[in-house]
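Work Package 3 committed the consortium to producing structural models of liganded targets before the mid-term review. Because experimental data for this complex are still outstanding, the team generated a predictive model from sequence and the ligand definition alone, so that downstream docking and mutagenesis planning could proceed in parallel. The input record is reproduced below exactly as it was submitted to the modelling pipeline, together with the SMILES string for glutathione.
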Amino acid sequence: MLKLYYSPGACAMASHIALEEAGADYEIVKIDLRARQQKTPEYLAINPAGVTPALATEQGVLTENAAILTFVAQTHPEAKLADTSSAFAFARMLAFNSFLGASLHPAVGRALFAKPPLESEAKEAALEAALVKYRLVEDHLFQGPWAMGEAYTVSDGYLSVFTRWGRQAGFLDKERFPKLNDHLDRVQARPAVQAVLAAEGLSAV
Ligand SMILES: N[C@@H](CCC(=O)N[C@@H](CS)C(=O)NCC(=O)O)C(=O)O
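The resulting structure, written out as tokens with the ligand in place, is given here.
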């Protein structure tokens, strides 16, 4: 059975949503980031990077949401969580997921979770940088009605992690980011996502 190491509401929720949407046989193990459980020798033996998510599989441990999402989509083709109709369509989804992991996530993470927290001008600059990334998704990368077009894919759950953070922090204005807000509402309404929220002890935002 697959085992997902996650922290509630953190980026591992993308992998959690994918597993649930796929109907995968999996269990979850909570890692308390505030208690620094991600830095314990036990967890570092699973993921030496000391971050969540990590997915223990029969072949070994996978880290990085972008890789876990690809693995889940490819090992559960019946769930149709990725467009595999052409190399281009599949690569375009990887490009979107890579942008989320390598560009949007670090920008939003810096604005919201920098330690020590950013102050005044540095905080404003970080927020502005995060908004530039959200704007890129809203105006260019998001295809609609789902992130990658007509069909729901693993990219949708991944994107929703960061739009949840933005909405919770009060900077994902509905008038400035109508597509992202509508998308988040539709993702959070999905039965699989509601099951994930309940399992992580969270509510829709
Ligand atoms: N690129 C990685 C990022 C993983 C990551 O930064 N996870 C955060 C939670 S969103 C974490 O575990 N942080 C704990 C720490 O840095 O100590 C991925 O997408 O899997």
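Reviewers should note the following from the model. The pocket of glutathione is lined by residues 7, 10-11, 33, 38, 50-53, 64-65, 101 (CB under 6 Å). These observations will guide the Year 2 experiments.
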